[in-house]
Design brief:
single chain; Double Stranded RNA Binding Domain; about 35% strand; disordered C terminus
């Protein structure tokens, strides 16, 4: 999977084209852990990725443009806050090796 770091803005995310096959991942330069998965069928999904207990984990946040970049960043900050309080928002979420 292709991985690219960019500053997430609405304009930048709208310009991203779908890969011919599979999916591509883009990582926000402003909010660590926030990524955008782009699939060959045109879906763009905000995801929070983090290593928890030595394993890669992810939480699907929302589809773009249903959720704005600012809202996705705020959601990631909320999830990071839960982790700082000792809560694990990844518990019960699907684990991923991606």
């Amino acid at each position: 999977m292709k991985k690219t770091e960019i500053n997430f803005t609405k304009a930048a995310l709208l310009e991203i084209e779908s890969p011919e096959k599979g999916e591509a991942a883009y990582y926000d330069t402003k909010e660590k852990g926030l990524s955008l998965r782009v699939t060959a069928n045109g879906y763009k999904t905000f995801i929070y990725r983090k290593f928890i207990e030595g394993k890669s984990a992810r939480i699907v946040i929302a589809l773009f443009p249903d959720m704005t970049v600012d809202e996705a960043r705020k959601r990631v900050q909320q999830l990071k806050g839960q982790l700082a309080e000792g809560k694990n928002p990844f518990k019960g979420e699907r684990k991923s090796s991606r």
